[in-house]
Each structure stands twice: as structure tokens, then as C-alpha cells.
Amino acid sequence: MVKEIERKLPVVHVCTIVPISQTVGANRIVPAIAIPHPLGDPTKTEEEEKVIRRRLVEKALRALQTEITEQTVFTD
Amino acid sequence: MAYRIVHYINQFYAGIGGEEKADVTPEIREDVVGPGLAFKAAFGTDAEIVATVVCGDSYFASNMEKAGAEIIGMIKKYEPDAFVAGPAFNAGRYGTACGAMCEAVSKEFNIPAVSGMYPENPGVELYKKSAYIIETPDSAAGMRKAVPAMAKLLLKLLAGTKLGTPAEEGYIERGIRKNKFFGKLAADRCVEMFVAKLKGEPFVTEYKMPVFDRVPPQPAVKDMKNAVIALVTSGGICPKGNPDHIEASSASKYGEYDITGVMDLTSDKYCTAHGGYDATYADADADRVLPVDVLRGMEKEGVFKKLHNKFYATVGNGTAVASARRFGAEIVGKLVADGVTAVILTST
């Protein structure tokens, strides 16, 4: 799915299992928290969780604004 | 004396539980468990399963290096002659774990390792070069076919018997080329193939061209302040009750959902249709999969111009590659028509 989107629009893949995303062929990859809650952490309070989520989304937007020539995992 | 085999299975096949138990840490049992019974029958007196490693699929997928090292440590004392993992059919995390363990074990102990998977399992692409993976059907209904084929290949590897081609042995091609002498010159063989092709007759190439299915990256978003951002997910987020009946696995469709005025995905209105992970956390707060709440906040702050008023969702659980390709192509067509600048795609 990510690859078909990339044919026409810049896309960032926020996902937990990075090796699968790399194999599938996503170009901009942001590693997420965990499989059942990629953009959250139920062990934290709702406020803390939102901070974590915001950080990941900011990273995703940064990835979209970064010129790349090859598959790139945005770890920080 | 029978060969000593260690078998790897997930929490489901060990009878521990389904997705709600997918985060269990690795354990070892000095016993034949689940599909191990079928292997026992297939091995006969030639080999015996001396231990079974059980690990939760999510635990392994989220901690690949750590889990791999833990399991290597656990199986050392059993001094295995060979390792068998799965079969995983079309289960993605399970297949990834099986492939990773086959690779790690054969590297660490220098022993043969065999798994079994459906060709679209992501574990195949990741590990087919380093492991022997028997091609299986896409579901456990294929167990009776998969296990004897895996056992047979493993026993051949143990005995050091020369293997035939992947097609003859039933395993997925590993990309290894071997020289072979033919009676006929290459030019003759080539022309014969070409004539067969022209006539529409079947022929077998001697060297398959690799398929590079890559898409070059799009240029970066230059002007985020004026960008329209859209959300797409394979995590199955949908309005409560799953109005489009998106399947919990092997999805045949995706949904398009209007979020005009929606500031937060609350549990009374949104849930997940996904059957491949524990839905507890997504059902309680779907923003954990599809971050509408923080994107609304950033939209308000002017970080970007607009969050697109529709999101697209499907379930990426055993979904056929052809279906996913079609969903992606259709979705991006709609997004372009709606003036979207860039996409955040989330996966569980």
C-alpha cells in the first residue's frame, strides 16, 4: 500500500516492525512504539501518552520534509 | 541414534493463547508441543524433538535481537543437530520470527534449519536467502502437507544428501546459482526457448531476472505550513461497529471515513477491525493507531494547513499483496484528486 501511495505522493510509514517495512519498500520509515499501540503507550498517563504520540508525529512530519535518495529509517 | 531437533513455535500453537498472549516471553519445554506431534510422526525413528521453544509473536517482533539471543541461550544445552521453525503459513510476525531464528541458529550452531511459509509471508522476503523455507498454503489447513515436506528436507540436510532444485525439493528459491553442464549449446537452448515463447508454449528460464519492486522516494514537502496531510492505516481503525465489514484478516476492502470536525478518536465512536493484534488498546483509544488528536492540535497551531477530512483504513493481516496494491493505488488517486500534499501511513 505504502509503495503505491509513494508513486504519487510523499508518504511516511510509521510502523513497529521496521524490517517488514524495509522489505515492503517504504522509503521514509519512522519506528513506532509497539504492535498493538504504535502511537501510544497504555502504561503511561493519557497526558504522557499524548506527548509520546506528538513526538512521533513530529518525527513523521520531519521525515516528510527531508530530501532522501534511498530508504531511510528516521530514528531521531 | 536419532538426530536431536529443537522446534520453534508461537504462543498460539503452544496453546497459550491468541493475540492477548502475543507478548509472552520465550520459554523452553522439554516436550513435543502442538505441530511438533506431526513432526514426530514424520521423523519416525530418524530424529526426535528434544525441546520446543515457545515465544509470543508480538514479543519476538518487537524485540527481535533480544528475543533471538535469549532463545539461542536457551537451546544451547540441548545440543541440537537441527532446528525446525513453524510452519508459519501466512502469519507475518510468526514467519518473521521463524526466519530470524532459523538464520540465527544455523549461524550460531552451524546446523541445518528449516521453516515453512506461504510465499507472501514477509518472513520469506527477509530470510529466504539464509534459511530453507518450504512453500506452504496460506493457512493451517495446509499443516498435513507442510510438515512432511519440512521434515523430509531437514532429514536430507542432516544426512548431507545432495538437494535437487528448489522446485523439486519444495522450498522457496534462495537465489543461489549452480553451474551445470548441458548437452546442447547455450545458443541452441536460447533459440528453443525463444521459439517456445513465440508459440506461447511453456518454457523454463535458466536464469530468472530479479524483480526490483522499488519506488523512488518522492521529493520532500517544501512548504509544510501550506500542506494538507492525510492519514491512512493498515491498523484497521474504523467507526465503531465496522460499518463496511472490513475483514479481520485477509481484507478484501478498505474504508473511507469522514473526520470533519472530529478532534479525537474516542472509544464510543471508533474501534479496530484488525484481528492480528490484541485490540484492547486500539479499542480504548484509536488515536494510539491513528493519531487524529495530536494532528488536530498541530493543525490548530498552524504546523501544517489542514488535516484531510477523510482517512482510509484497511486491515493488514494476511492481506494479499495484490489487494494491498489495489487499495494503495485507489486511495492515492482519491487523495491526489482531493489536493492532499503528503500522507502518514500507520501500521501495527
Explain the overall architecture.
The complex is a heterodimer of chains A (76) and B (348). Helices cover 41% and strands 14% of the residues of chain A. Chain A is α/β, with parallel strands linked by helices and 76 residues long. In chain A, strand 2, helix 3 and strand 3 form a beta-alpha-beta unit. Chain B has two domains: 167 residues, Rossmann fold; 123 residues, no CATH class. Helices cover 34% and strands 19% of the residues of chain B. Chain B has a six-stranded mixed sheet, sandwiched between helices. A four-stranded mixed sheet of chain B has the order 9-11-7-12, with helices on one face. Chain B has a two-stranded antiparallel sheet with strand order 8-10. Chain B is globular, with a radius of gyration of 24 Å. The mean pLDDT of chain B is 94. The chains are: A alpha/beta (76), B alpha/beta (348). Chains A and B meet through helix 1, strand 1, helix 2 and helix 3 of A and helix 2, helix 4, helix 5, helix 9 and helix 10 of B. Strand 1 of chain A pairs parallel with strand 12 of chain B.
What attributes characterize this protein structure?
heterodimer; A: 76 residues; alpha/beta; 3-stranded parallel beta sheet; 3 helices; 3 strands; 41% helix; B: 348 residues; Rossmann fold; 2 domains; 6-stranded mixed beta sheet; 4-stranded mixed beta sheet; 11 helices
The first-level CATH class of the largest domain in chain B is given as Alpha Beta
* Share of residues in helices of chain B: 25-40%
Q: How many independent structural domains of chain A?
A: 1
Side-by-side strand order of the widest sheet of chain A = 1-2-3
Oligomer type: heterodimer
Structural class of chain B: alpha/beta
Strand pairing plus helix content of chain A: what structural class? Answer: alpha/beta
Beta-strand segment tally of chain A: 3
Number of DSSP helical runs of chain B: 11
Biggest sheet architecture of chain A? 3 strands, parallel
CATH fold-level topology of the largest domain in chain B: Rossmann fold
User: So what's the overall shape of chain B?
Assistant: globular
User: pLDDT below 50 for ≥5 consecutive residues: which ranges of chain B?
Assistant: none
Query: What's the helical proportion of residues of chain A?
Result: 40-55%
Strand percent estimate of chain A: 5-15%
Helix-strand string of chain B: EEHEHHEHEHEHHHEEEEHHEHE
Largest interface: A-B, 53 and 68 residues
Beta strand % of chain B: 15-25%
